[in-house]
Amino acid sequence: MAAALSLSPGLAIGGPVAEIAMAGRPDGSKVWFDPYGVLIAPGQTVRWTNHDKANSHTATAYAPENDDHPRRIPEGAKPFNSDYLLPGESFEVTLEIPGVYDYFCIPHEMSGMVGRIIVAKPGETDFKDYPRGDLDDMVINGFPSIADILARGSVQVKE
């Protein structure tokens, strides 16, 4: 745990599991992951829980194995897909390989429901962003910057 906390002064995750909420407005007009940017240590677990009473959601890695999406996870990393989570349901995955993991919600990707996880060893900061042309601009604009995640540890939604 000390290693995870030394990754960034703004790292908000204090335990072995990083919690990400799947959320939305009661009328369904907006949906999001919160936080939508997270910094974790290799071997740390991420848990998504659907707190949105109006929608089901997924946490799905950008990878060709997931409906032929572009690969936006590190080489060698296993793609993940939660399948549809009803309100109150959770899904978790442990990420071992350092790098940038971009993910989305299958039914809400084009609504900008995307997120980014950076898996980093202490002091590791040399991460490259993925090409802009592989996804629609609306989707690309939904990701927090790598620099913000590294500086803050987690990037929350401003609703």
Description:
This protein is mostly beta strands. The chain is built from 3 helices and 9 strands, in the order H-E-E-E-E-E-E-E-E-H-H-E. It has helices at 2-5, 137-140, 146-152, and strands at residues 17-24, 31-34, 37-40, 44-50, 60-61, 90-95, 99-104, 114-119, 154-155. Strands 5-7-8-3-9 form a 5-stranded mixed β-sheet, covered by helices on one side. The longest helix is centred in the C-terminal third of the chain and has 7 residues, at 146-152. The radius of gyration is 14 Å and the shape is globular. The chain starts with a helix and ends with a strand. Residues 1-14 have low confidence and may be disordered.
Outline the secondary-structure elements.
Elements (H helix, E strand, L loop, with lengths): L1 H4 L11 E8 L6 E4 L2 E4 L3 E7 L9 E2 L28 E6 L3 E6 L9 E6 L17 H4 L5 H7 L1 E2 L4
Parallel strand pairs: 1-4, 3-8
Antiparallel strand pairs: 1-2, 3-9, 4-6, 5-7, 7-8
